[in-house]
Design goal:
This protein is mainly beta and 241 residues long. Helices cover 6% and strands 44% of the residues.
């Protein structure tokens, strides 16, 4: 068989092999900085690896991972086990999943975010935090949703261990939860995210750094029930099945 014919046969066989499907569920246990999600991250600043996860100083610590774990998913559940520090900034971007375009540039209207806001408890000097989630895939007008409720009953205290932040999308409604309790929800039509990259400890463009620890993240390509969410580390033994 000629070299040219051999190359043609190989090319046809290669094209006939379908790409490996994405795993239905992927877990990132943040116990080191050598590999995250099976790939080598880019580390900035001096995030500290502890027995409880990766601690970020809130100033210049960040970890960038060249993977968007929910790219292509039509429905999904995104979970993060974390503990914010009480002395962080008022607005903090914790975890950012960012799509990129064909030229490898960040697509500003296609991203998912976990953030927190710190507020005073009404009538006191006590500070607490509330969850802020954001999702956009603005190929269509209005294809974005911010979920933020800092009403007194949705404020969470510091110093009581780790929490699980969860966002779910069922094709019609975006919801977010803290420790399995619904915080808020809103209707939105989101297209699947494109492949891209992720940042931990800050927004992908290095805005609003997070002060605290991230222990674990999990990405599922369908909607889990609250009974199936990760159990906050340090509050219970084991995790939900």
């Amino acid at each position: 068989m000629s070299t040219m014919l051999s190359m043609l046969v190989f090319a046809l066989l290669f094209q006939a092999v379908p790409p490996e499907p994405a795993k239905e569920q992927v877990t990132w246990r943040l116990h080191g900085l050598d590999l995250i999600g099976g790939v080598k991250p880019v580390v900035e600043g001096h995030p500290e690896v502890t027995a409880e996860g990766i601690h970020f100083s809130g100033t210049d610590d960040a970890v960038f991972v060249p993977v968007h774990p929910l790219a292509g998913a039509e429905t999904w559940t995104w979970e993060m086990v974390f503990r914010p520090d009480a002395d962080g900034a008022e607005e903090q971007r914790i975890f950012h999943l960012q799509s990129v375009d064909a030229d490898g540039k960040d697509s500003p209207n296609m991203r998912l975010m976990f953030e927190i806001r710190i507020r005073f408890v009404p009538g006191s000097l006590e500070k607490r935090w509330c969850l802020d989630s954001f999702a956009t895939s603005a190929k269509e007008a209005g294809a974005y949703r911010t979920l933020l409720d800092c009403s007194p009953e949705k404020l969470h205290g510091f110093g009581n261990g780790f929490h699980t932040a969860t966002a779910t999308y069922d094709g019609r409604t975006l919801r977010n939860y803290v420790d399995g309790v619904l915080q808020t929800e809103g209707a939105v039509k989101l297209s699947p995210q494109m492949p891209g990259r992720s940042s931990l400890g800050t927004r992908i463009n290095r805005w609003d750094y997070f002060k605290g620890t991230i222990y674990e993240a999990r990405f599922t390509r369908h909607v889990l029930t609250p009974e199936e969410f990760l159990v906050p580390f340090g509050k219970a033994v084991g995790r939900s099945k």
